Each structure stands twice: as C-alpha cells, then as structure tokens.
Amino acid sequence: MIELVKAETGPPPNGLGIPSHKPFLFRGLMESFIAKNDRSSSLPKANSRELLAVLGLAILGCVLRIVLIPFGDFITSDGVYYATLAQSLLAGDLDRGLSTYWSPFYPLLISLFAGIFRRDPVQTGRIISALAGGMTVVPAYFITRRFSGRRVIALVAALFVIFDPLLIHYSLRVLTESVYTLLLTSGILIGWVAIERSTGRYFLLTGLVFGLAYLTRPEALGYVFLLCLIISVVGFARKAGGRWLLSRCALVVLGALLAAAPYVYYLRQETGRWTITEKFATNLPSNNVDIRKLLPDGQLTRADVAWAGTRPELPGAPASAPPTSEQQAPGAPTPTFLDRVGRFAKHTLKGLYHEYFIISELLPPLFLILSGVGLFAVARNASQIRLEIYIGSFIFATFLGYAATYHNERYLVPLLPLALGWAATGAVAVASWFYKTFGSRARGVLRISPSQTLAVVTLIVVASQLVNLLVRIRKDPGRERLAAEWIRSQGLKSPLIMATGPWPAFYTAGRHLYIPNEDLTVVLAYAKRKNVDFMVLEERWLDSTPCLAPLLAEKIPQELTLVYEHVGDPKQLGLRIFRLGHEGDRNVLDAPAAQEIDPCRTHRVMRAARTVEPETSNDLK
Which of 23, 151, 317, 475 is most buried, judged by most C-beta within 10 A? Predict the structure, then answer.
C-alpha cells in the first residue's frame, strides 16, 4: 500500500547538506528558511516566519512586475479582444462582453477592477497580469517545498520564478498567461494536498480552481479528467474501495462544474450545441481552412466571426461570394477511421518533435543543466518521487495535448514554475559540490561558508536571466496609435476600418474588419460592399495578406487614395492608410511619393516582415 503521509528520510540539519560555518552577512536570511528541525515530509508545516517570508517574496515579484509595466506596453491582438470584451462588460453589455472564442474569466477580472484604475481596461489588464505573475511565487514555493522537503531549495525556486524573463514578459501583457499559470500551479498544489489528506473539501477546491482555469483557457478542463485518473490510480494502490474513489472524483468534477456551468450554458445558447469552446474548431489539425478567407456567403471572413465576434449585417440577404474567392472543392473523399487515426498520430509526433526545440526557448542552457542535475543527480525518498511523478503527469499531459492540437511557446509557459523547482534543486546541489570541492579547503579571506556559496551560485543564475529579460522587454513603437490619432482627426464617428489586425479600430473606438486573404480586386469589391472608411496596411503583417503586395510595388489602383504613411526609422516597418472612392481627399504625401514606391524597397520589407518577432501572429490561436 502506498503511504502518502510521511517521507522516509530527511536532510542534514543545516538544510544544505554541507557543514555549517560561522555566522556571516547573509546567514540571517538563509536561516529564516533553514530551521534546525527542517525534516523532509510530504506535509511540511510552515510557521508564521516562513509564511511572512513567502508573502514578502510574492510582494517582491508583484512590485518588480508593476515597475516594469511601462516597458511592456505593446498590446497583442489577443489583448485587444480581451480589453474590448472587458469594456463591454463595464458598460453592462453582456451580449458583446461574452465570446464563444475568448474565455470569460480574464475579461471579467479586468471589468471588476477597472474602476480602481480609471476604467482603463488595458492598464487594468496589465496590472492584473503583474499581480498574478508575482503571486505565482506562492504555489511555486510550496510545490518545491513539498517535493524537496527543504526550505532553502524552495527559496531559490521562488527567486527563479520572480526573475524569470519569460514569466515577467507575460506578466506585462494583456494576456491570460499569468492568471492561468497562477491557477494551474495552485490547482496542482491543492490537488496533491487533497490526495495526501484525503479530505473532501480539498478535492472540491481543486475542481473549483481547475474550473476557473478552464474559464481562463479552455484546455484546462483536461486536467480535471487527468486528476480523476490520478485519483483512480491512488485509490487502487491504497485499496481504498470504489466508494472513496467515486466520491473524490465526483467532488473534483462538481467543483469544476460549479465554476464552468454558467459559461457552458452560454455556449449552448449561442452555438445550439453542447461544447466547451469554439476555439478548438480553429486549432484542431483537421481544420485546414484559411481563417482569413471569405465565407461562402461573402459576408465576412472566418477571422471576423471567430476572433472579433462580428455578425453579418444582413443575415436575411447574404451577398454571393466573389468568383475568385477560394472555396473548398466539392466531392472530396471522406477519410476512413484508420486514415484519421494515422493523420492524428503523425501530427502528434510531429508536434512533440517541435516542442522538443521549444524547451530550449523556455529554459536556457544553464537552467536545462540545473534541471537535469536536480532530476538525476540528487537523491530523493519515495514520498518525493511520488510527488514528482504526480507533477510530471501534468507536464507530460500538457506537452501531449498541445502536440495533438496546436503548439506554441506561450502555451507551455505555465509549466515554467514547475521546472524551476527542479532547477533550484540542481542549483543547491551545485553549490554544495562547489563548497565541498573548493570552499572547504580555502583559508583566510578566501574562506567561504555554505550559505555564501549558495548565494553566489543563485546570484550568477539570476544575473544571467536578467540579460535575457532586457532582450525581451521592448516598448510599443506606437505606429497604430499614431495612425489612430490621424483617423480620429478626420472627425468620423465610429469609422469602419479594414486592417490586418484589430489595433487601428481599437485605438479609434471604431469598427474592425479583417482584410481577406483574396485577390486585390476581390478585396476592393468587398471593401466597397461593406462601405469601408479606411483600409490600413501594416507592412509587418503583410505575410497574412500577400494579396496587398502590389500596393507596395506598383501604382495604387484608382479606387484607393493614399492618405497617410508612417515609415519611422529604417529598422521599423511602415504603416499606410488608404481611403476608397475618395479621389478628392488630400494626401498627406506628395502625389509622386504616394503613387510610386521603390520595388526593391518592397522586397526588403517583405523579407523583414518574415524576420520580425511574431509577437502577435500566433496570438489568435
């Protein structure tokens, strides 16, 4: 029978596994985490001093992120939609404040706290992300505390979480990553406590936390079923009986339903079928339809319907699709069941292969080495191994799930706090080795204590991460805002703007349409039918609408008038605004400059657009 209550061994008294030395400058900090009776246990009890220290670390993480918010003010396309939904919720418009594609919990948080921050959903969203990112230190600390049984390792893990560049990067965005990471790590921690204590309320609380995680990102619902599977394995190993197993699984599912049921009912009302999200229909490998193509009725693109939630203006009289719009070939043979299984398996294996390389982007080489040391070079007892297998099951399920659907660096970021726990274990082991090899033999001024050795190793690791942080942080170049200011100066109320992304319409409080990925003539006919006021062309996203390349290399069609151009410095890609059917409009440029563009420059722009960091091109997934 598996015992999940007590560990079998404990670390040496000083918590580092190396002899103690005279008190020194950093020892007071270390000793607040290294109690003399610090014995390894699957249920370590935190005293008030430790709890205050963890709270202080969380506050440090929050303050650091809030201070860095001005350096992360680039709002992604996802962020635009979350902020827009929050604005509608603030105005009491539930119809526009809920979406079948975008999960509701993050916009709801923004709307609840927007009153504190001058009703600015963008700034509120960043602050919520910053606070959630800082508070992730708490579950990360206690997860590491449990599987290592050592406060000092948990302290190092907390410091790694506080200063990790990727976690900070997403804590400065109007994105769900920080909130989702906090909920995921908290759910994993509470789930393990529930299994240890076998108390019903913890199982219910675990389900509730994963239900909130589902309302943040729909794939989190899979963790509810994973936890039920883990509970079944534990119940079988404990010989707990069917009643215990069914009751605990039922409590987890009940907790998740309490959080998720209202939104699932909303999806039922909107879509006419039972579903957990409309997002999966876009991301599943079987969906090979270009989401920027016009729908068969020619009213909108799939991107307008799925991402922006736009509805046809004339549902009773749909326009016919343009003749050059690509439609799916009729009569395609239906794949057999074995064909589907084969394609799915091939896609999943290819996804796992790609995720292997994503790991090196999430964890730099130094952290990969430390994680390897923490996993394979440090002795552990049976209780710690059981907890690590439990955590590993969540990591493996995450990799497998995204490999089977759609993999992205962003989706794997919530696993970082778990991996940093093993990196902290490796850092302490390396510090112990350095002390035994060099520190214990030093004399005089070179004499160094065990805690000083650990402090130096930790400082080196954190400093290496700060360099990566400086590379990732960048300010919004402001192109869309400058363009929005010009559009507002034209005096149009709620202009209809057709663009490659939602930013121009968002900054002007206008209406947004995506530029279809169709031939230029079809795009112009579509724009006329929709009575578009402005068409905004952003060179950095030209790959998503290659049909517009002629606008950069040839004479502009008569239907269009170039009214605005923002080029910026040579390292930036430009932005242009056109009007349709307004030949009398004044150009902000001289006529020759507006009508003739260097083709060589166009090719350079196209190459640059492919090399720009795809910060938002992968958001809408």
Answer: 151
